[in-house]
Amino acid sequence: MGGGGSTRRVTFEADENENITVVKGVRLSDSVIDRMKEPSSGSGRQHRGAVSDEELKKRIAEELALERARRDSEAQKRRLFGKLLERERISSNEHLTRAILRERAATEEERQKAQRFARQLEEKDRELKKHDAYYKEQLARLEERSAQFYKVTTEQYQKAADEVSARFK
């Protein structure tokens, strides 16, 4: 933009009212023109409203240099702001990536925990089924013994009743 020296030549001329007209497409604001008409503070000689071509060229060059420096400064600010925005974007992406990785790790840990609990539950279920089968078998044996005991007791009672009945008949 203005880092190197410009080889572009600017020509200008003053009209009858001492207004400056710039040729070759360079526009100057009224304030720039007014400043170019004013005598420079470093100059010891007095001007009567007329400015020499050489001094005017020097002022225009200074104004163009200032404008170029201002544009360069703005461009540099935009670049720095762009870099800052890029760093912020990268930082937020890194933060988001770390959060996603933490969440994935937590999800995987929960999945493994759920699998472990499922295996423990299946193991407990198998154990309960074994206990259930064992107690059913024990209950069946006890019922069978109880039935045999009842049968023997009933037979003995019947036999004793028959004996008592036969004796006292």
Mean pLDDT: 83
Q: Label the overall shape.
A: rod-shaped
List the strand order in the largest sheet. Answer: 1-2
Please estimate the helix content: over 70%
State the separation between the terminal residues, measured CA to CA.
142 Å
What ranges have pLDDT less than 50 throughout 5 or more consecutive residues? 42-48
Counting helices, strands and paired strands, the structural category is mainly alpha
Beta fraction of the residues?
under 5%
* Major beta-sheet overview: 2 strands, antiparallel
> What is the CA-based Rg, rounded?
55 Å
Order of helices and strands: EEHH
Tally the helices: what do you get?
A: 2
Number of strands: 2
Give a description of the structure.
The protein has 169 residues and is mainly alpha-helical. The chain has a domain at 54-163. The protein is 73% helix and 4% strand. The protein is built from two helices and two strands, in the order ββαα. The chain has helices spanning 30-37, 53-167; strands at 12-14, 20-22. A two-stranded antiparallel sheet has the order 1-2. A hairpin with a 5-residue loop joins β1 (12-14) and β2. α1 packs antiparallel against α2. The chain is rod-shaped and about 170 Å long. It starts with 11 loop residues before the first strand and ends with a helix. Residues 42-48 have low confidence and may be disordered.
